[in-house]
Amino acid sequence: MNKELLSVAKGNKPADLVVNNGKIVNVYSGEIYEGGVAVCGDTIAAVGDVSYCIGENTKIIDAQGNFITPGFLDGHIHPESSSMAVRNFAEAVLSHGTTGIMTDFHEIGVVSGLDGIKAVLKEAEATDLKIFFIVPSHVPFAPNLETSGGHFNPEIIREALKLPNAVGLSECVGPYILEEHEELLESFDDTLSMGGKTLQGHLPAMYGPDMNACVAAGVTTCHEAFCEQDVFERLRNGVYLQMREGSSASNMPLLLKTVMENNLDTSMISIVTDDLHTVDLYERGHLDQSLRTALSSGLDFVKAIQMVTFNCAKSFGLEREVGGLAPGRRADINITTGAEDFKVLTTIAGGRQITDNGKMLVHYEAAQHDSCLLNTTHLLNPITADSFKIHVDKDAKKAKVLCMDTLPYIPFTHRRDVELDVVDGVVQCDVEQDVLYIAQVERHGINGNVGKAFMGGFHIRGGALASSVGHDNHNIIVMGDNFEDMAVAVNRCIEIGGGQLIVKDGKVAAEVAYPICGLMSDLPLDELSEQKKVLNQVAYDMGTPIRIPFMFLGFICLACIEDYAITDKGFIDVKKHEIIDPVLELLK
Amino acid sequence: MNKELLSVAKGNKPADLVVNNGKIVNVYSGEIYEGGVAVCGDTIAAVGDVSYCIGENTKIIDAQGNFITPGFLDGHIHPESSSMAVRNFAEAVLSHGTTGIMTDFHEIGVVSGLDGIKAVLKEAEATDLKIFFIVPSHVPFAPNLETSGGHFNPEIIREALKLPNAVGLSECVGPYILEEHEELLESFDDTLSMGGKTLQGHLPAMYGPDMNACVAAGVTTCHEAFCEQDVFERLRNGVYLQMREGSSASNMPLLLKTVMENNLDTSMISIVTDDLHTVDLYERGHLDQSLRTALSSGLDFVKAIQMVTFNCAKSFGLEREVGGLAPGRRADINITTGAEDFKVLTTIAGGRQITDNGKMLVHYEAAQHDSCLLNTTHLLNPITADSFKIHVDKDAKKAKVLCMDTLPYIPFTHRRDVELDVVDGVVQCDVEQDVLYIAQVERHGINGNVGKAFMGGFHIRGGALASSVGHDNHNIIVMGDNFEDMAVAVNRCIEIGGGQLIVKDGKVAAEVAYPICGLMSDLPLDELSEQKKVLNQVAYDMGTPIRIPFMFLGFICLACIEDYAITDKGFIDVKKHEIIDPVLELLK
Question: Distance, in angstroms, between B107 CA and closest chain A CA?
Answer without folding.
Answer: 28
